[in-house]
Structure formats: structure tokens, C-alpha cells
Amino acid sequence: MKRNTLVGISLSVIAIVILAGWLIWQFLFPVPAAKWVFYGEKPSELRGYIYPPAKNSIDGKLEPKPEIPDGDGALLTLWPDTKRCTLTVKSGRENINITRFRESNPEVVQVEYIDESGMPTTLHVQLNDGVSFWTYPDPDITNDFIGWKFDNLAGRALPVRFRGASMMKKVIDGTQYKLQTNKHWLYEKYQNGIVLESKEYSTLPVTNSEQNHQAELALIDKANQWLSETLQDLSDTLSVPIPDQWLSTNSDPCQSVNTDM
Predict the structure, then answer these.
(1) Which residues of 124-147 are buried (b: 16+ CB within 10 A; e: fewer)?
(2) Res 141 pLDDT > 80
(3) Which of 188, 171, 189, 170 is nearest to 179 (CA)?
(4) Which neighbouring-strand residues pair with 85?
(5) Which residues cross the membrane (predicted)?
């Protein structure tokens, strides 16, 4: 009996030592949460990691090592645990942020772009499935935004128009669904800012969109062309490499992050 007790105590001591060693190792050599590469003028290329907040951190923010440059350039970041890849490009007042969520099925890509005049373009795509949302400034009407938004009843993306300082401040043309206090969904169809049709549903309606699949893929191709041209223009302006083909299922835009890391 005494021998078994000693063995138990010994195993407990070993476990404590191992745990203490692991904690010390984590403190001295924390596992990075992400890795990144920055392309800019000075330096032309810089690579590093992003670590969890230090134990004595006051603000609790993630810590990039080395520091990520603040100037114009392209920052590519890979977050392995969440299977998320992000691209941030700054060129003067113009900037673009792209995030690809690789753990989603289908994968989701979100794009937020601000042009030189400060006007935003928003693009949300489910790869190989369809465009959920894509709006951009109307070149002919100030403070109007046009594009496409997926409609549940139609089972495909439909043309939309928003008006106001905020892109979704007011629907002018298109449809929208509002969740009511009774948990029902209110469907509204607009034309020239007037509600033409309104109906309430107990659950959010879903229409099989298989018959519209080719049209949805064609819209993705159109979005991909816009995104590729935008990234190429930024690449030419900054004279730095910028990964492309974010809307292609056959590409890995964050592959260059792993080079020589």
C-alpha cells in the first residue's frame, strides 16, 4: 500500500514538473497566432509573426514581431487556427481589405475597398456558389450605390440601389428582409424608393438556386475581373507584388506567406 502511495506521489510530482515546464516554455516561447509578410518601399519585404498578448499587457492587444510598417504597401496575413487569410493594401487614400474564410463551406471572401475619393465598394462572395452582396458607387448619381444582393425568394442575386452617406441607409431599388419583434420576417420589394410588395414570413424563405447556378458563377467571374484589375492597379502604383485570384477555388493567395518562414 505504501509503495502504491509513493508511486502515486511520484507521478503527481512528475506531472506538476511537466506542467510547470510547459507553462515556462509558453511564457518564454509563445506560439504565434499568425504569420505575415509586408511588401513596401522601406523595407521592400519584411516578414514576421503575430503573438498573443503578453502576460503583462495593459491593452490586451496582439503583438506583431517585428513591428508592421505603417506606410503604403501590401500586408498579407495567415491565421492558421481559424483558417483565415487577409490582405490589406494601402496606397495614399486608396485602400482595400480582403478576407478569405477557408473553414467555411463554401469558402467565403469579403472585400472592403475605399477609392481615392473615399467612396466604398463592398463585396461578399461564397466561392463557387454565388455573390451574396456587391455594391459600388453609381458614377452618375452622387451618394447612390448600385450592384447586386442575393434574394432568398428569387434564389439568385438581384440588382439593388441604395442611397445615402451610409451604403444601406435607404433602399431605392431591390428587396430586403427585416426580422420583426415577433421573430417573423418582413419581405419588402422597392422601386424608386417605394414599397411595391410586402409580405410577412414565419421563417426566412429559402428558394433552391440550382437553376440559377450558371448565372451566379458568371457574376462571380465579373466580380473577380473587377477585383483583379483593382489589385493590379494597386500593384503597379506601389511597385509591389500583390496576390490575386481571391475568388478562385483553385488558388491559394496566402501561399507566399509560407515562403522562407
Answers:
(1) bbbbebbbbbbbbbbeeeeebbbb
(2) yes
(3) 188
(4) 78, 100
(5) 6-25
Query: Are 45 and 14 members of one domain?
Result: no
Quick one: which of 78, 125, 154 has its CA closest to 225?
125
Average pLDDT over residues 221-242: 96
Task: Check: CB of residue 201 under 8 Å from CB of residue 145.
Answer: no
Tell me, yes or no, whether 37 and 47 share the same domain. yes
Number of domains, the chain: 2
Q: Is the pTM of this model over 0.85?
A: no
Is the domain of 87 the same as that of 153? Answer: yes
Same domain, 120 and 10: no
Q: Is the pLDDT assigned to residue 120 strictly greater than 70?
A: yes
Chain centroid to CA 154: 26
Claim to verify: residue 11 and residue 64 sit in the same structural domain: no
| Number of other CB atoms surrounding residue 61 within 10 Å | 10
CB 254 within 8 A of CB 243: yes
Q: How far apart are CA 155 and CA 213, in angstroms?
A: 9
| Separation of alpha carbons 77 and 200, rounded Å | 43
Across the range 161-174, mean pLDDT stands at: 83
Q: What residues make up the domain containing 12?
A: 1-30
